[in-house]
């Protein structure tokens, strides 16, 4: 029996090795040809039906056979968010270094709730959180924790904000302030912590899609007069739609005046802190009480890797530290950190290690330059748009995002909206570039978010020219 187990283990080990070698071979070959591939490979009804028929077997199957099946029938059907011309949503051009760090960390399966169970990984997380806090301009009392992404980071920070500014008896009076461009995860998080939609104020934005300061203060004053308790303003550092940055210094001043918590949703834009050229755009973020930041966006990490940073780490401990009897043997000393007590998750992976590996291999300067390249990509796209007729820039290039639409004369607003929707569908069906629509100021527009460090000027200009080609084809009266 022992011999049989040894043979099975050896067979499994050999299959694992073959699978890894196959993946690296396929990945490297795909990477070389990525720019020539379609941006998505959709699974049709036949493929979905094939997957549904597999079921769960009573007896196990060969690991190698199942792995090969997964690579052929599951992993190959996806939108290639790592494609240099995938410009939808916030793309995911994860670096190979991050992938390696993810594989290594998963292989060792570290439990990163306590210093005792993972002292070295906890030390790296502490050091990396300290370095990130320093980039944001936070002081010695600051801290934070790695989480799955922006949604969890926002939820974590908003919980700390609620507990810092409202007693349990006051929570039913708490009011939060967002803009009409704030990411949807913020409202979701507010509802989770007990702030209903009726006490979430959606403040209009100005012509640059930043929170309108006069209307923000007016809303705060009105709520105070109504006997409510304004407790948090959520500012954006790089909105998803336009890359806009709210007036951070002014919001900080307002929050101090009304004794409110200032949270900055920097899930996308906080990475600009690593750019020497553009870091000044985030002036004022150092006044925030908390910041959310996603490494799997503009720091080129595999999913999921987010961070929440706070000016005073005592606020996270106040909200999340627990002391059950089964954890008393692993209480941390003063110079240690049990990260399971600084956020919602107790069982948690060592998410920091892949970012740490990336920074060690690339260096922070190279990472900053890769971020700066995104700014240039969006500027090339806008420049090419200005060379074409009948294209309208709705939000100029900022933080690697530009919004625009095809708006020829003689068409109604409704027809122009429908036309731009069809232009997006056409380029997606073509497979050359991933460009989707969003809505700004009541208009349906096309949006480009270009952060891939290997995307080129030709990628940007060719994508715009292809959009223009489809726009003219779709302008035929019979098709509109």
TrEMBL record:
Entry-linked Pfam families: Pyridoxal_deC
Cofactor(s) it depends on: pyridoxal 5'-phosphate
PROSITE patterns xref list: DDC_GAD_HDC_YDC
Classification via SUPFAM superfamilies: PLP-dependent transferases
InterPro entries membership: Aromatic_deC, PyrdxlP-dep_de-COase, PyrdxlP-dep_Trfase, PyrdxlP-dep_Trfase_major, PyrdxlP-dep_Trfase_small, Pyridoxal-P_BS
Record's keyword terms, sorted: Decarboxylase, Lyase, Pyridoxal phosphate
Coiled coil region boundaries: none
Recorded superkingdom: Bacteria
PANTHER family, per the entry: GROUP II PYRIDOXAL-5-PHOSPHATE DECARBOXYLASE (PTHR11999), MIP05841P (PTHR11999:SF70)
Recorded family membership: Belongs to the group II decarboxylase family.
Protein name as catalogued: Pyridoxal-dependent decarboxylase
């Amino acid at each position: 029996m022992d011999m049989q187990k040894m043979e099975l283990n050896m067979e499994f080990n050999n299959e694992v090795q073959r699978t890894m070698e196959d993946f690296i071979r396929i990945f490297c070959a795909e990477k070389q040809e990525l720019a020539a591939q379609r941006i998505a490979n959709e699974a049709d009804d036949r493929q979905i039906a094939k997957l549904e028929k597999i079921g769960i077997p009573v007896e196990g199957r060969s690991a190698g056979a199942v792995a090969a099946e997964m690579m052929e029938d599951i992993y190959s059907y996806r939108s290639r968010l790592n494609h240099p011309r995938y410009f939808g949503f916030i793309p995911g051009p994860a670096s190979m270094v991050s992938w390696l760090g993810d594989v290594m960390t998963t292989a060792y399966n570290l439990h990163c709730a306590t210093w005792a169970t993972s002292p070295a990984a906890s030390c790296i997380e502490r050091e990396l959180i300290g370095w990130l806090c320093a980039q944001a301009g936070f002081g010695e009392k600051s801290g934070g924790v790695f989480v799955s992404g922006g949604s969890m980071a926002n939820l974590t920070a908003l919980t700390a904000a609620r507990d810092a500014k409202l007693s349990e008896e006051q929570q039913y009076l708490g009011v939060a302030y967002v803009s009409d461009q704030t990411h949807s995860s913020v409202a979701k998080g507010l509802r989770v912590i007990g702030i209903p939609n009726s006490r979430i104020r959606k403040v209009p934005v100005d012509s640059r899609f930043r929170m309108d300061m006069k209307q923000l203060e007016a809303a705060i004053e009105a709520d105070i007069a109504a006997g409510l308790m304004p407790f948090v303003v959520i500012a954006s550092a790089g909105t998803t739609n336009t890359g806009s940055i709210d007036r951070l210094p002014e919001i900080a001043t307002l929050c101090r005046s009304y004794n409110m918590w200032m949270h900055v949703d920097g899930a996308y834009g906080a990475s600009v802190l690593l750019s020497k050229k553009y870091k000044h755009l985030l002036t004022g973020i150092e006044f925030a009480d908390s910041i959310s930041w996603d490494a799997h966006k503009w720091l080129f990490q595999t999913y999921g890797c987010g961070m929440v940073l706070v000016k005073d780490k005592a606020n996270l401990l106040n909200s999340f530290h627990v002391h059950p009897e089964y954890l008393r043997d692993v209480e941390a000393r003063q110079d240690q950190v049990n990260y399971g007590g600084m956020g919602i998750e107790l069982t948690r992976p060592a998410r920091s290690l892949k970012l740490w590996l990336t920074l060690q291999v690339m260096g922070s300067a190279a990472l900053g330059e890769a971020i700066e390249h995104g700014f240039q990509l969006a500027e090339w796209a806008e420049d090419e748009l200005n060379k074409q007729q009948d294209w309208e820039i709705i939000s100029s290039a900022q933080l690697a995002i530009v919004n625009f639409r095809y708006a020829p004369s003689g068409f109604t607003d409704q027809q122009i909206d429908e036309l731009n929707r069809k232009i997006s569908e056409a380029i997606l069906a073509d497979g050359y570039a991933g460009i989707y629509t969003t809505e700004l100021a009541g208009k349906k527009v096309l949006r480009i978010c270009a952060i891939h460090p290997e995307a080129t000027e030709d990628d940007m200009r060719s994508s715009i020219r292809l959009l223009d080609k489809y726009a003219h084809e779709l302008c035929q009266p019979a098709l509109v």
